Automatic annotation (TrEMBL):
Database matches in InterPro entries: Cupin_2, RmlC-like_jellyroll, RmlC_Cupin_sf
SUPFAM superfamilies: RmlC-like cupins
Top-level taxonomy: Bacteria, Bacillati, Actinomycetota, Actinomycetes, Micromonosporales
Pfam families linked to this entry: Cupin_2
Domain of life: Bacteria
Annotated ranges, domain Cupin type-2: 41-105
Native organism: Catellatospora coxensis
Record's protein name: Cupin type-2 domain-containing protein
């Protein structure tokens, strides 16, 4: 994507989308500049979060659904409105997804810009 020169409305960001057939989850990047990227990550109820740690800091905003997030330091139940910060390199995973989970995701700097990025 190209760096934007003006304000932009990001249609559909954070909206639930069923993963494509045969996949565990769905990641769509909506916006990418050198310093920031924004996307939507969806995991269906009962689904598996197969992501790996990222090389960028990350903020999740839960827009729909319920699950637990697990890190080496603990775990917490999350639902609509929860905001979660995960520092670069920290193992994390959503488990016990009891309702279709939709997350608005912000990466700083942009996702994959530090190299070695895994699936969102």
């Amino acid at each position: 994507m190209v760096r934007l020169a003006a304000m932009q409305i990001i249609e559909g960001a954070g909206r639930w989308t069923p993963p494509p057939a045969g996949t565990a989850n769905d990641w769509v990047e909506h916006l990418k500049t050198p310093d920031l990227s924004v996307g939507t990550y969806c995991i269906p109820a009962g689904g598996i979060d197969d992501q790996s740690p990222h090389t960028e800091d990350e903020v999740y905003v839960v827009t729909a659904g319920r699950a637990r997030i697990v890190t080496p330091d603990g775990e917490a139940a999350v639902g609509p409105g929860a905001v979660i910060f995960v520092p670069a390199g920290e193992e994390h995973r959503f488990v016990d997804v009891t309702e279709d989970l939709s997350l608005l995701v912000f990466f700083g700097p942009a996702y994959g810009s530090r190299g070695g990025a895994a699936t969102a």
